[in-house]
Amino acid sequence: MQSICHTYLLLKFQVHKGGYYHQMKIAIETLGCKLNQAETEALQHQFVEAGYELVQQPAEADVYILNTCTVTHTADAKARHLLRMAHRQNPDIFIIVTGCYAQRSAAELAAIEGVNRVVDNSEKGNLPEIVKNIPQKALSVKEPFATSTPFRTRSFLKIQDGCQNFCSYCIVPFVRSVETSVPPGTIIEEINKRTAEGYQEVVLTGTRVGGYAYAGAYANLKSLLQSILSETEIPRIRLSSVQPQEISGELIKLWRNPRLCPHFHLSLQSGSAAVLKRMNRRYSPDEYRKAVQLIRQEVPAVAITTDVIAGFPGETDAEFEESLEFCKQIGFARIHVFSYSPRSGTAAAQMAGQVADKIKKERSKKMLALATESAQKFRDSFAGEALDVLWEKQTDDGDWTGMTGNYIRVFAKSKDDLSNKKSTIKF
User: Fold this and answer.
1) Which of 205, 219, 255, 258 could form a disulfide with 214 if both were Cys (CB 3.0 to 4.6 A apart)?
2) Cβ atoms 184, 214 nearer than 8 A
């Protein structure tokens, strides 16, 4: 279940060709997590500040950048599909691949027909300069066309990168191994910029957001949030994901401020103690349950969302049922379900007891059914209550769609333009 985000940019600097000037166009697509989306958004702002504009179709671009994910085999396959499709649609396009797949297997991507350059994560922030220095003879510049700039209501902001936890199934520590945190002052400055641009919400993201630590103990996640609350005016602040062992009473008390969205994405992966141990997760089901109870005691109407892996190596029928029952008891607002995908080089890929694909699919189907049921129960629990909604855009059917602070997707009909506006609705 990988998300994909499309951002298309038009480079405003001009290329001389055939005695007159053309504008060079670039398209960016993003696969994977909110951290990838945040990094793409940062690139977007760099391009815009350099005079670039947003455009609509990658098929009309001169340069195509794919920001990849490699968490699962599905993510890898999707990346390869997009690269081949871009080349088929536009054989002359200059293709650049970056992101975690590029970090893990540059040679594999470079061998795909049409790929011109592979850029690892450490060089991702230099893409505007890399694009600027593409030899003109390598480009087949398209004719200029009309541009548009879709407005964004929510900004993804990277505050941290890297993980050294080495969960046994996870490839991320191998492709984002260095743990770094963005200086608090830089984060405050970026949020104030987004506020001035009209954004209503900022999502703080990273590989391990709860591990935020700038200059050792000088700043942690709690002190960062305190600074954001006191030094910015952004209406909504949301965390992308935290670990249960990173939850503390002092941290949760900050959610008494209504600007902090009542939503915690608290990664679970399994409700079985034995499976969690094999996964090298740093908590037990009981510790996870206590973290949820602490959050719910302090934060009214809170949404707890999570990730669950089905079919981890050695997972027995009894262990899966234990995980399923645990998820029922917690009552998640949303569950992202993944079938276990072995990643070469990780400890889990070498474990005995690899679960057959058929069984993984059956277990995923059962967990997805529970996810649907749990999400509906969470939404139904607010019947008759009023919640604030940040409206985003119109759907193809003409309805307006937006998100509540506690992560409920809502739809409404209106003749007015609701984009980027907040209102209170009764469920």
Assistant:
1) 219
2) yes
Neighbouring C-alpha atoms within 13 Å toward the C-beta of 340: 29
How far the first Cα of the chain sits from its last, in Å, is: 29
Coil/strand/helix, residue 379 = helix
Question: Which amino acid belongs to residue 71?
Answer: V
Q: Where are the alpha helices (DSSP H) in 299-356?
A: 317-330
Question: Any idea what DSSP says for residue 149?
Answer: -
**pTM for this structure?**
0.86
Q: Which amino acid, one-letter code, is at 420?
A: N
Whole-number Å distance between alpha carbons of 412 and 425: 10
